[in-house]
Amino acid sequence: MKKILFRADGNAAIGAGHIMRCLSIGEAARELGMECAYVTADPSFERLIQEKGFSCTVMDTIYSDMDSEWTVLAPVLTQYQPDTVFIDSYYVTTDYLKRLRTYGKTVYLDDVLAFAYPADILINYNIYADRRDYESLYAGSGTETPRLLLGTKYVPLRREFQLRKVLPVRERVEHILVSVGGADPERMALKFLNCFIQDKELAGRCQFHFILNSLEPDKETIKEIAAPYPWILLHENVQCMSELMLKSDLAVSAAGSTLYELSACGVPTITYVLADNQIPGASEFEARGIMVNAGDCRRKTDFLAGVCRELKLLAADCGRRKDMAERGRKAADGTGAEQIVREAVMQ
Predict the structure, then answer these.
(1) What is the mean pLDDT of each run of 10 residues along the chain (347 residues)?
(2) Domains of the chain, earliest start first
């Protein structure tokens, strides 16, 4: 039996994306008969990983200083003896990756092209991933170019998003989904809530479904404000996200990995940027006609008004919503996690 070790982090500062995509790959690997384990710097997502049926070693180290964790990580690697190690963090260094390769085949998940990563396989599943960018990155670096797995073919979505059919786009918009990411560092859930309540054309015209993650900083305030409004529904501990997405006519979402889930479900979406690494994705989704990019919520002065304006425009244009849904479905078919395991681990 092949053994895979995942080294990834998630917390209030960096969100849940790294953990969630590694869990998707782990679940696909398990279904193919492999053993998987996880290592994290802190316990933020230990319980979630264990609830998924995987072991999780918490190192109690600093996630942003990975070179200092070797005194704890090395014994874990020696004891587990993985065939393949997946590493998913923006804080890796050249020395870290070189050392990691002595313990097994290394697979690095990238989306920022920070430096020439010394790994065996590199995955960038993002819609903007371009082989030419990596050829330039490695040219003259002295580091051998890894095997590259690029593009939305490798988006590691959970099995629930492997959908043969989705509901047709409805003429009338009745349900709008609002997703602000795993940690909501810009406090966007509260800002959107107040904005939609105050907008006379949106308030009460449809149901707004807010996803409140465990790390949401304004959860209690949001519950208090939303209580008098029956058209605002709050969702916590969502067990089947695809079910909630499939009933949505429109969505507002931060430009993270959730965009690929929404694409797989055929949900027309207004996306926005809350971190620099999200800029390329938001731009490319808009360029391909899949989503509307509302811009950077940190810098755009009329950002909230712009989101409301785009919601009204899309609600009134069923033809455009149908086109966006079709383009999204073609971009993400939900089989990427299995594809990663077959090409990165089994070959």
Answers:
(1) 96 88 96 97 96 97 97 98 97 97 96 96 96 96 97 93 89 97 90 97 96 92 98 94 96 94 97 93 97 97 96 98 96 91 95
(2) 3-157+334-345 (3.40.50.11190), 161-331 (3.40.50.2000)
Nearest to 213 by CA among 251, 181, 259: 181
Q: How far apart are CA 200 and CA 312, in angstroms?
A: 12
CA-based angle 216:270:259, to the nearest 5? 65
Which residue type occupies 208? F
- Provide DSSP, 172-239: S--EEEEE--SS-TT-HHHHHHHHHHH-TTTTTTSEEEEEE-TT-TTHHHHHHHHTT-TTEEEEES-S
The values of phi and psi at residue 260, to 5°, are -75, -35
Question: What distance in Å separates the CA atoms of residue 183 and residue 20, rounded to the nearest whole number?
Answer: 13
**Tokens in use for 127?**
């819609």
The Cα angle at residue 82 between residues 79 and 88, in degrees rounded to 5? 110
Query: Which pLDDT does position 298 carry in this prediction?
Result: 96
Q: How far apart are CA 4 and CA 342, in angstroms?
A: 13
- What global pTM score does this model have? 0.86
3 state SS of 78: helix
